[in-house]
Write a structure and sequence with these properties.
The protein is α+β, with helices and mostly antiparallel strands. The protein is built from three helices and three strands.
Length: 83
């Protein structure tokens, strides 16, 4: 088994269906504020069968530290609220 050498450059989260609008609005605001940034960071948002969202960011180093921290904090507070 090969180790994932890109581990610290990736971020993934699962958002429950109750908060999918909040998560999508964050990425919509970021897309409007900084066009092309989400493509550069290789953000992938997948709808799950139960209505939840799976969010994958493959190249988090493309984001500046402030933007990356805003995303992580916002998504983590959504996830913590539902635990």
């Amino acid at each position: 088994m090969k180790p994932n050498l890109n581990f610290y450059n990736e971020y993934q989260a699962e958002i429950p269906k109750e908060d999918r609008i909040r998560a999508l609005s964050l990425f919509k605001k970021m897309s409007d504020a900084k066009p092309g940034l989400l493509q550069e960071a290789e953000v992938k948002i997948v709808d799950s069968a139960d209505g939840s969202l799976l969010i994958f960011i493959k190249n988090i180093s493309a984001l500046d530290n402030k933007t990356a921290n805003v995303i992580k904090n916002y998504i983590n507070t959504i996830r913590a609220k539902n635990c």
